[in-house]
Amino acid sequence: MSYNLLKGKRGIIFGALNDQSIAWKVAERAVEEGATITLSNTPMAIRMGEVNALAEKLNCQVIPADATSVEELTEVFKNSVEILGGKIDFVLHSIGMSPNVRKKRTYDDLDYGMLDKTLDISAVSFHKMIQSAKKLDAIAENGSIVALSYVAAQRTFYGYNDMADAKALLESIARSFGYIYGRERSVRVNTISQSPTFTTAGSGVKGMDKLFDFSNRMSPLGNASADECADYCIVMFSDFTRKVTMQNLYHDGGFSSVGMSLRAMATYEKGLDEYMDEDGNIIYG
Ligand SMILES: NC(=O)c1ccc[n+]([C@@H]2O[C@H](COP(=O)([O-])OP(=O)(O)OC[C@H]3O[C@@H](n4cnc5c(N)ncnc54)[C@H](O)[C@@H]3O)[C@@H](O)[C@H]2O)c1
């Protein structure tokens, strides 16, 4: 159902790889809400993924760019302004990758060259994106820039590895740049902290299925899906959130505020039973 929330707005969506990608859902919803958009991803992702099919479906163009390259990002903004016929109203940064996670290097055995890549791709790219756009004055007054984050930026989650550090940096960049861009151009910058979601990037996290189940049981509203995340992004791009900036916004069914839920407690107790003797002594912790 469309509410025309983005009627007449122009946007750039970074990070749609396949129809599971959060960015894919956001692109579809943005067009449904009346926006015109361009898509961007790495040349490799464009070749290996399905972004061209999405572009065809949404009648929009794909501009290749590695988000660690300032030159390529600058081209994305220049071309998008030209193609869409004016300044950009909203941008989605939906990009994340950790070579350490991919190569199964644990947090106490990180490869530092790979850590540099994790931080560059997953966090510094957000700074590069905003700085490139600002230098070109490519974002319209009251524009909205959103990046996707995860609660591992605040609290430790087994298996999330160096992506936790990348997300902490990503959220900090949203605050630091949000201050400058807000003051000078009324452009808002926020991060949305999303529930675990089964996507290509999400499935790379160690123990993802258990993490998904745990957070689903802990959240009073259950995990937020990729489609629901897209809805939230649309609201953040719309004129209804013009005074929201420099925030990390939890979109997680309440997970981040819960200490222990009834559903999680019941599962925990059931699990413990299996490890207790008849007197209730725990055999295995
Ligand atoms: N899936 C989850 O559980 C979850 C939860 C919270 C936040 N997020 C975040 O959501 C965002 C989108 O991830 P997703 O889950 O939709 O997975 P996804 O794998 O569909 O998307 C990740 C995207 O990053 C792109 N990318 C990787 N390296 C790049 C580079 N150098 N330059 C440009 N693009 C590059 C990939 O091509 C891909 O399109 C990420 O920031 C991720 O950390 C995901």
From TrEMBL:
It is an enzyme of class 1 (oxidoreductase). Pathway: Lipid metabolism; fatty acid biosynthesis. GO terms for biological process: fatty acid biosynthetic process. Gene3D superfamilies: NAD(P)-binding Rossmann-like Domain. The keyword Lipid biosynthesis applies. Keywords: Fatty acid biosynthesis, Fatty acid metabolism, Lipid biosynthesis, Lipid metabolism, NAD, Oxidoreductase. SUPFAM superfamilies: NAD(P)-binding Rossmann-fold domains. CDD domains: ENR_SDR (cd05372). Transmembrane segments: none annotated. GO terms for molecular function: enoyl-[acyl-carrier-protein] reductase (NADH) activity. Its EC number is 1.3.1.9. NAD(+) binds at G15, S21, I22, I95, K167. This is Enoyl-[acyl-carrier-protein] reductase [NADH]. It comes from Bacteroides reticulotermitis.
